[in-house]
């Protein structure tokens, strides 16, 4: 495939498989089935985006919430590649959603080591 064809290829041509629901680790129990399913769907949809597609592991830190640093409702997830996980590092992301609960974007923060509150 030449460079022009590569640049003009449909986005789905390059999309990697999302992180499956069964592979998402939880740091807390979510008893509300609707909230749990919405959050897992957000992770699946988010990991189809080019910026997050290379991650192989996801740890759900917090389902839908707002925080002092981000007043927009979001779910907080720690993503890692195999290499990051092996070195005890990951990247935190805020996954945003629209009024229908569909993924609408994310903020990906720099790689960092694990903190006590990540456990």
Describe the strand arrangement of the main beta sheet, using strand numbers: 1-2-3-4-5
* Portion in strands: 25-35%
How many strand segments?
5
In whole angstroms, the N-to-C terminal distance is 45 Å
Give, in order, the helices and strands: HEHEEHEE
How would a textbook summarize the main sheet? Answer: 5 strands, mixed
Shape: globular
Rg (CA only): 15 Å
The overall pLDDT average reads: 84
Low-confidence stretches: 1-15
Q: Could you estimate the helical fraction of the residues in percent?
A: 10-25%
Count of DSSP-assigned helices: 3
Structural class based on helices, strands and sheet pairing:
alpha+beta
Structure described in brief:
With 119 residues, the chain is of the alpha+beta class. The chain has helices spanning 3-8, 33-46, 82-86, and strands at residues 24-26, 57-65, 74-80, 89-97, 103-113.
Textual characterization of the structure:
This protein has 119 residues and is an alpha+beta fold. It has three helices and five strands. The longest helix is centred in the N-terminal third of the chain and has 14 residues, at 33-46. It is globular, with a radius of gyration of 15 Å. The termini are far apart.
Keyword list:
119 residues; alpha+beta; five-stranded mixed beta sheet; 21% helix; globular; disordered N terminus
Topology (elements, then pairings):
Blueprint: H1 3-8, E1 24-26, H2 33-46, E2 57-65, E3 74-80, H3 82-86, E4 89-97, E5 103-113
Parallel strand pairs: 1-2
Antiparallel strand pairs: 2-3, 3-4, 4-5
């Amino acid at each position: 495939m030449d460079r022009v064809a590569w640049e003009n290829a449909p986005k789905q041509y390059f999309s990697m498989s999302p992180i499956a629901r069964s592979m998402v680790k939880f740091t807390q129990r979510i008893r509300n089935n609707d909230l749990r399913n919405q959050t897992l769907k957000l992770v699946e949809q988010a990991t189809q985006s080019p910026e997050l597609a290379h991650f192989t592991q996801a740890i759900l830190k917090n389902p839908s919430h707002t925080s002092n640093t981000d007043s927009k409702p979001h779910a907080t997830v720690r993503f890692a590649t195999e290499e990051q996980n092996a070195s005890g590092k990951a990247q935190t992301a805020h996954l945003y959603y629209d009024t229908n609960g569909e993924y609408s974007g994310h903020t990906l923060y720099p790689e960092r080591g694990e903190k006590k509150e990540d456990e």
